[in-house]
Amino acid sequence: MCSEHGISRRDFIKTSSAVSLAAVSSLSVSANAAQKDNEKMVEKIAVNGRINQSVCKWCYGKISMDKFAAYASGIGLKSVELVGPKDWPILKKYGLVCAMSNSHGITKGLNRIENHEECLAKIRKSIEETSEAGFPNVICFSGNRKGMDDDEGLKNCAIALKKIVGFAEKKNVTICMELLNSKLNHKDYMCDRTHWGVELAKKVGSDRFKLLYDIYHMQVQEGDVIATIKKSADYIGHYHTAGVPGRHNIDDTQELYYPAIMKTIVKTGYKGYVGQEFTPTGDAFKSLAQSVKICDV
Fold it and tell me: pLDDT digit string (tens) for 257-277?
């Protein structure tokens, strides 16, 4: 893997109303100038506005957050996701959000009662921080099976999520459980089929719990991506992308045709974010730009 707008996050020293107003004005000018300078440096690629595109920073290694956020904003992305609160002021500097905030880990998840206290504490903390920042989503995971029956895991996940989803409703944050393949990348992971995830969403029974549908992972695990998106759209709160096979660039070397997938997502009425989450080959920024353009339907 596999998530939190503006000057309000900065601390101002209040000495007098005149000084405070001057400080705010200066910071506003600086932020606007940074965005304008960035627009001059790179070409805006995401221009159609039907898909709110995001990108996962972990795929881009040691590139500084400031440089990465500047580029992401410049090409028209709306978000850099799966980064922590320490990076959020940089995102806001460039008019970006964190569309998906982190919480607990992948393998030790909500399918085991003994994990609930630890996982729910991390989810609650992330919801609080995400809500304060004005961001939309917090990620969670089922955990691995380790011999557990899927029905038992489903029941245990629902028990855990019902304990926290009311808090998410109050904070206007959506908890999203990620669908991951267990064939190749995440052996033994329980939430590895869309049907299982949809059944969990039905049991939880709140619009503040949905699925993170990772297109790469579900193509590897079960295929039938477009039909599944159409059928399950009401239960999907976020999307991730990558090429199959290899989890690399979205281009003509891989089997998924992303323009058709993106058009399907648009037709469902989806208004959330689509996060680019592939390991780039070649020049990192050029690879990202190419994939963003392909998805800008």
Answer: 999 999 999 999 999 999 999
pLDDT tens string 39-70: 456 899 999 999 999 999 999 999 999 999 99
Whether residues 35 and 148 fall in one domain: no
76 and 198 assigned to the same domain: yes
Terminal-residue alpha carbon distance, the chain: 26
The rounded percent of the chain whose pLDDT value lies above 90 is 86
| Token pair for 117 | 């206290």
Q: Which residue type does 17 have?
A: S
* Per-residue pLDDT band at 278 (split at 50, 70, 90): very high
Q: How far apart are CA 155 and CA 121, in angstroms?
A: 19
Report yes or no on 7 lying in a domain: no
Tell me what pLDDT residue 6 has. 38
Please tell me the total number of residues recorded for the chain in this structure.
297
Note whether 72 and 156 are same-domain residues: yes
The tokens describing 210, both together, are 């949905």
CB under 8 A, 24+ apart: contacts of 227-236: 228/194, 229/261, 229/264, 229/265, 229/268, 230/264, 230/268, 232/194, 232/197, 232/198, 233/268, 233/269, 233/270, 235/197, 235/198, 235/201, 235/202, 235/210, 235/211, 236/210, 236/211, 236/212, 236/270
Helix H or strand E encompassing 197:
helix 194-204
Domain that holds residue 33: 13-42
**Cα(75)–Cα(89) distance, rounded to whole angstroms?**
19
